[in-house]
């Protein structure tokens, strides 16, 4: 792909990924075929800030985990009322990283 397209994609979507993943994403996009560009453009990434807010408000019910695609963990949180509150509090600190990991996995699935 063209470097200009890749740089524009990274600038507009960098909040969805960890900063240490940005060079890896750039390399993957530069190596990818132009035919995959349309697929990359249509990807919908989860906003980590939005997921954090949901986690603060409804994390005890597992809504945050359902939103990022961790259905099993969401069911576990729902059945245990957020691990009796402990799991919900722990998720306040790790949910943004988990969301960013899900986003990069989604991008890698399209590019490989």
Automatic annotation (TrEMBL):
UniProt key word Translocase: no
Cellular location(s): Membrane
Transmembrane segments: none
Transmembrane recorded as keyword: yes
Top-rank taxon: Bacteria
Location (main, coarse): membrane
Matching InterPro entries: TM2, TM2D1-3-like
Keyword entries, A-Z: Membrane, Transmembrane, Transmembrane helix
Residue span, TM2 domain: 47-93
Membrane topology field: Multi-pass membrane protein
Protein name: TM2 domain-containing protein
Organism from which the protein derives: Mesonia profundi
């Amino acid at each position: 792909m063209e470097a200009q397209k890749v740089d524009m994609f990274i600038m507009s979507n960098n909040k969805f990924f960890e900063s240490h993943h940005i060079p890896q994403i750039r390399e993957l996009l530069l190596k990818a075929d132009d035919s995959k560009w349309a697929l990359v453009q249509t990807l919908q990434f989860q906003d980590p800030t939005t997921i954090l807010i949901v986690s603060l408000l409804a994390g005890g019910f597992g809504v945050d985990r359902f939103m990022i695609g961790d259905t099993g963990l969401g069911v576990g949180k729902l059945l245990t009322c957020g691990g009796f509150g402990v799991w919900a509090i722990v998720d306040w600190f790790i949910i943004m990283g988990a969301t960013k990991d899900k986003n990069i996995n989604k991008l890698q699935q399209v590019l490989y």
